[in-house]
């Protein structure tokens, strides 16, 4: 179907959310892989997707990165094996050490913070509750920091209500970093009602980028009819952005790129918010905007709800000259 001529294009107000897209943890993870390629050459192995975005993964594959599911797939030798931003269970680096593999840890420092919190709770004899999504790599990594059975995972208020009663041990909770702020608040409230003495983290485990992107899309969604979230279907933080927009009454769609836009759903829409998950590069946002410009007479405005300056240093081995 051909795009309408300029004179026939319907008008569309686009509210571009800020902050959006890459967070400091994702920037660091991608930089780690690129720096490893620069220093050590191809191949560089990466266990699982470095971040949940096909565009990013495919671009790295084209430069000589080999993505593997398990450490056993990495060839012995001096080529690096990178752990993804989501973090890994302790058994993974232990296996790599047994095989004498050269590893580089790209775990987001904010995920590492949650790992350390869980370890402290365990050393202090606390019963540990993890709020998160079953099967997510970050959740698997956090649970895998401790012996089997040490962490109990909950994903809803209903699961909190089904938890075993107080057994006399002190109790604490930690959370996945990419959850819905609103959902997590409700689950925490249920935990505090069920276990009034539960240990509360001194700082919120949900990362600043997740919180900021959700707040931006929530504010924008109140001003528009529809929302487009750029991100991968397996990206937790991107899915949460879609849910946040929907809760504000928007017809939201999560798309990997411009080819995924449901144009029929936008047929009678005159205002749309555009945002991107923390693992979606700005290049994909630009392609979405170009596709919208091709079909509409666009009025573009940016809604800024927070300013971000967070940055994480690369591992020491990658900061040294080649």
Put the structure in a nutshell.
The protein has helices at residues 24-40, 54-61, 91-98, 109-123, 137-143, 157-161, 181-194, 208-221, 236-247, 282-295, 316-319; strands at 11-18, 44-47, 65-68, 81-83, 103-105, 127-131, 151-154, 171-175, 226-230, 251-255, 271-276, 297-304. The chain is of the alpha/beta class and 322 residues long.
How would you describe this protein?
This protein has 322 residues and is of the alpha/beta class. It has a five-stranded parallel beta sheet, sandwiched between helices. The protein has a four-stranded parallel beta sheet with strand order 3-2-4-5, with helices on both faces. A three-stranded parallel beta sheet has the order 7-6-8, sandwiched between helices. It contains eleven helices and twelve strands. The mean pLDDT is 95. Helix content is 37%, strand content 19%.
Indicate the low-confidence ranges by residue numbers. Answer: none
Strands, total number: 12
Can you tell me the CATH topology of the largest domain? Answer: Cobalt-precorrin-4 Transmethylase, domain 1
Spatial strand sequence of the major β-sheet: 10-9-11-1-12
CATH architecture of the largest domain: 3-Layer(aba) Sandwich
Distance between the termini: 51 Å
Helix content: 25-40%
Biggest β-sheet strands, sense, barrel = 5 strands, parallel
The average pLDDT is: 95
CATH class of the largest domain: Alpha Beta
* Class derived from helix and strand content: alpha/beta
Structural domain tally: 3
How many distinct helices?
A: 11
Gyration radius over CA: 21 Å
Name the CATH superfamily classification of the largest domain. 4-hydroxy-3-methylbut-2-enyl diphosphate reductase, catalytic domain
| Morphology call | flat
């Amino acid at each position: 179907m051909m795009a309408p001529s300029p004179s026939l294009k319907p008008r569309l107000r686009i509210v571009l959310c800020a902050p959006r897209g890459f967070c400091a943890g994702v920037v660091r993870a991608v930089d780690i892989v690129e720096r490893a390629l620069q220093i050590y050459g191809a191949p560089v192995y990466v266990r699982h997707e470095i971040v949940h975005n096909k565009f990013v993964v495919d671009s790295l594959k084209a430069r000589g990165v080999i993505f593997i599911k398990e450490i056993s797939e990495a060839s012995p030798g001096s080529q690096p094996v990178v752990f993804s931003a989501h973090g890994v269970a302790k058994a993974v680096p232990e296996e790599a050490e047994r095989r004498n593999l050269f590893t580089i840890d790209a775990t987001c420092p904010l995920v590492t913070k949650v790992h350390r919190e869980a370890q402290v709770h365990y050393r202090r004899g606390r019963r540990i509750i993890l709020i998160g999504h079953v099967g997510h790599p970050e959740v698997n990594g956090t649970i895998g920091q401790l012996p089997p059975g040490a962490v109990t995972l909950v994903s809803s208020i209903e699961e909190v209500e089904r938890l075993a009663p107080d057994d006399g041990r002190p109790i604490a909770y930690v959370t996945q970093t990419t959850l819905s702020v609103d959902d997590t608040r409700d689950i925490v409230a249920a935990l505090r009602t069920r276990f009034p003495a539960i240990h509360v983290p001194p700082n919120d485990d949900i990362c600043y980028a997740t919180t900021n992107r959700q707040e931006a899309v929530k504010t924008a969604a109140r001003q528009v009819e529809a929302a487009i979230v750029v991100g991968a279907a397996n990206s937790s933080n991107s899915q949460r952005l879609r849910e946040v927009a929907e809760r504000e009454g928007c017809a939201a769609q999560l798309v990997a790129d411009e080819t995924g836009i449901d144009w029929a759903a936008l047929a009678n829409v005159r205002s749309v918010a555009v945002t991107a998950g923390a693992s979606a590069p700005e290049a994909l946002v630009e392609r979405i905007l170009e596709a919208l410009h091709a079909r509409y007479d666009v009025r573009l405005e940016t809604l800024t709800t927070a300013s971000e300056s967070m940055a994480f240093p690369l591992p020491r081995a990658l900061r040294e000259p080649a």
